[in-house]
TrEMBL record:
Gene name of the record: recG
Domain called Helicase ATP-binding: residue spans: 292-465
Domain of life: Bacteria
Catalyzed reaction equations: Couples ATP hydrolysis with the unwinding of duplex DNA by translocating in the 3'-5' direction; ATP + H2O = ADP + phosphate + H(+)
Protein name: ATP-dependent DNA helicase RecG
Length: 737
């Protein structure tokens, strides 16, 4: 344990002891806020000035909004209805304005009496509700509202000073209710323990944490907000970077066996076999990896490279170097399809070098085994035996490698493919199988902006492969607006036929399999603005329609994640052999599938995929000498954000550029799927793209601080903040487990 206890933090007090159990329950259930600190760190989304009215002109559809506006007009209509046949049904229509636009509010039935009294023309109020469309006009039905009078104790002005903070809210908890709760706990902010060292704060002219919390919730001027945000960004960046720096420091304290390849061993024999020369990028990255492998503490490196940049080759050379030095190497893949694909491509690249112990095997060879959950008992027993005895130098597998039963003779290197699909704990479980901690190489084909690499992957050193090997062809990408221009979709299928007639093959990707029950369909994620409510297109249905219709006469097969592993493998083998013209699949083909003869890809409902995912999928074509074609089919209207996202993907093949766009659009949302730390969930004001400079500076400060004082002896406040961050991470692991 670290020698310094964390300070007792008043902000850790549970909300129910301050706000009462009912309010605390709603806050926990709907906003995930449990303590006084959680609530104080629930910052306003934006601020309204009391004298200034909001823009109603650009309200987002289907979102819960809070607006400040003035009542222009209120009319009560009486009508007959099934419930009130004598004409006693009532509807109150209120028009509010802000100078930029008008918005209709509507109240029905028994809910009209209070607003009818309150919402008189000229009244100003805050309104909260979900924006919907009725008779082609935007409206809020039954919005909650809070009157803005200058006198009453309860009004927003009494707790907001000159600026009204608007909080991220939900239907059950309006912005002003959150504001009032924050008012109640704000005095506790004075006792907030400051995590930043005094010298760092003074050197950068940052205000104290209590002052920052006060100014972000009760600013008097815009400058107050800027001061508060500047300070809170540093907190987030610095505490996170200290956590990562300590993790890196702990890694350097672990012992590892240095692994240096022999001059004329397996690696040299493999390099002699290669029918091409390595790119300069591959040589440079290999040098970085070999230097790390030669040290006596574990390598901890992230290898990122575009789809097709040759990461697998670089990783294989690292594995061969370790086998040369007497160790074993394990490659962990996120899916069975990908594990089988890697096993196939590794054994093909190695040729007779992968046949050690077999007749005709090479003198320098080693056995390469596959280990997945669905293997037959006999094959599995043999694989486990080969690993335990050291007969197998290389194993490629899925989560099955992490199981307790798996024993290694001398595990020297772990290669993790598509790291963002594995948590730190899974990674550590595999690393615990070595006599000493093995070296670790993490690969991803999702290009990661530098700042994300510094936050989410901040405990790893980074190598980038940014050159594509010679022989890769350009890919043309186009958006196909199926709703506006149905003849474009017909032309897309003609293009697929043309590619097949030219001797090539095609993929059609759909977001859903099609054999789910109704409840699963309903879970397909919230439809985006303007989306129709139909379920996403399904592989099984689309394949049937294509085979009978526009692609009749061609060989069409399906591939999806719920097929038996042997069936999946058989489908992939037939496609790779050229026996199948068109493969209709889910995103199981997203990573690792390599069929150089496949030149066309049609992605149905493309708007339902993320930017990075579309880029990954597109990387499956153009892998041979013929140019690739990727068609993004969508029913979304031209002005929608979804269409703009697709246009961005069609406009560039640069994965790093797209990863920036992706991050800007999702903000710090789910950038890398289930990332392996609580990093993002703890980022509230730090914007990973805009604040690159702060993150880089915080990383340098954190590294220097941890190098000088790894136990943070003199900084109890920082220890407290770290404990809170790491608790959050541990909680996330437990949820995922």
């Amino acid at each position: 344990m670290d020698p310094v206890p964390a300070l007792r933090e008043p902000l850790r007090q549970p909300l129910k002891s301050v706000l009462g159990p009912a309010t605390a329950k709603v806050m926990a259930e709907h906003l995930g806020l449990h303590t006084v600190g959680d609530l104080l760190h629930h910052y306003p989304r934006r601020y309204e000035e009391r004298g200034q009215l909001t823009h109603l002109a650009d309200l987002p559809m289907d979102e819960h909004v809070t607006v400040v506006a003035q009542v222009a007009d209120a009319r009560l209509h009486t009508f007959a209805s099934a419930k009130a046949p004598r004409g006693k049904g009532q509807r109150l229509e209120v028009t509010i304005t802000d100078g930029s636009g008008r918005l209709q509010l509507v109240f029905f039935g028994n809910g009209v009496h209070k607003p009818h009294k309150d919402l008189l023309p000229g009244t100003r109020a805050m309104f909260a509700g979900k924006v919907s469309v009725f008779n082609r006009k935007l409206q809020l039905a039954h919005p909650a509202y809070e009157l803005l009078r200058g006198d009453a104790e309860e009004t927003v002005e009494s707790w907001a000073g000159a600026l009204i903070p608007l909080y991220p809210a939900t239907a059950k908890l309006e912005s002003w209710k959150i504001g009032k709760a924050i008012q109640t706990v704000l005095p506790t902010a004075q006792e907030a323990v400051d995590p930043l060292p005094d010298s760092l704060r003074a050197g950068r002219g940052l205000i104290s944490l209590p002052e920052a919390l006060l100014k972000i919730h009760r600013p008097h001027t815009r400058a107050d907000i800027e001061d508060a945000r500047a300070r809170l960004k540093w907190d987030e960046a610095f505490v996170l970077q200290v956590a990562l720096a300590r993790r890196r420091h702990a890694e350097t304290q672990l012992p590892a066996v240095p692994r240096r390849p022999g001059a004329d061993g397996l690696l040299a024999a493999f390099d002699d076999r290669l029918p091409f020369t390595l790119t300069e990028g591959q040589r440079k990255v290999s040098r970085e990896i070999f230097d790390d492998l030669a040290t006596d503490h574990p390598m901890h490196r992230l290898l990122q490279g575009e789809v097709g940049s040759g990461k697998t080759l670089v990783a294989l050379r690292a594995m061969l170097a370790v086998v040369d030095a007497g160790g074993q190497a394990a490659m962990l893949a996120p899916t069975e399809v990908l594990a089988q694909q890697h096993h196939r491509s590794v054994t093909e690249m190695m040729g007779e070098l992968a046949e050690d112990g077999l007749l005709g095997g090479a003198e320098h060879g080693t056995k390469v085994v596959l280990l997945t959950g669905s293997m037959g008992a006999a094959a599995r027993r043999q694989a486990l035996l080969d690993l335990a005895t050291g007969e197998a130098g290389i194993v490629i597998g899925t989560h099955a490698l992490i199981e307790d039963k798996v024993r290694f003779h001398d595990l020297g290197l772990v290669v993790v493919d598509e790291q963002h699909r594995f948590g730190v704990e899974q990674r550590d479980a595999l690393r615990g199988k070595g006599k000493q901690p093995p070296h670790l190489l993490v690969m991803t084909a999702t290009p990661i902006p530098r700042t994300v690499a510094m936050t989410v992957f901040g405990d790893l050193e980074t190598s980038v492969l940014d050159q594509l090997p010679a022989g890769r062809s350009p890919i043309a990408s186009h958006v196909v607006p199926a709703a506006d221009k149905p003849h474009f979709l017909a032309r897309a299928w003609e293009r697929v036929r043309e590619e097949v007639e030219a001797g090539h093959q095609a993929y059609v990707v759909c977001p859903r399999i099609g054999d789910e029950d109704e409840s699963a369909k309903k879970k397909g994620g919230p439809p985006e603005e303007g989306a129709d409510k139909r379920p996403p297109l399904a592989v099984l249905e689309v394949a049937e329609q294509l085979a009978k219709g526009p692609l009749s006469g061609l060989t069409v097969e399906v591939l999806h994640g719920r097929m038996q592993p042997d069936d999946k493998d058989a489908v992939m083998r037939r496609f790779a052999a050229g026996d199948t013209d068109v493969l209709v699949a889910t995103t199981v083909i997203e990573v690792g599938v390599n069929v150089p003869n496949a030149t066309a890809m049609v992605i149905m409902d493309a708007d339902r995929f993320g930017v990075s995912q579309l880029h990954q999928l597109r990387g499956r074509v153009g892998r041979g000498s013929a140019p690739g074609l990727c068609l993004l089919v969508t029913e979304m209207p031209e002005a929608s954000p979804a269409r703009q996202r697709l246009a961005a993907v069609a406009a560039t093949l640069d994965g790093f550029e797209l990863s920036r766009i992706d991050l800007e659009q999702r903000r710090e949302g789910d950038v890398l799927g289930q990332a392996q730390s609580g990093a993002r969930s703890s980022l509230r004001v730090l914007a990973v793209i805009e604040d690159e400079e702060i993150i880089a500076e915080a990383r340098a400060e954190a590294a220097a601080l941890v190098a000088a004082d790894p136990a943070l002896t003199g900084l109890p406040g920082l220890r407290t903040a770290l404990d809170a961050l790491l608790d959050e991470e541990r909680e996330q692991y437990l949820e995922k487990g």
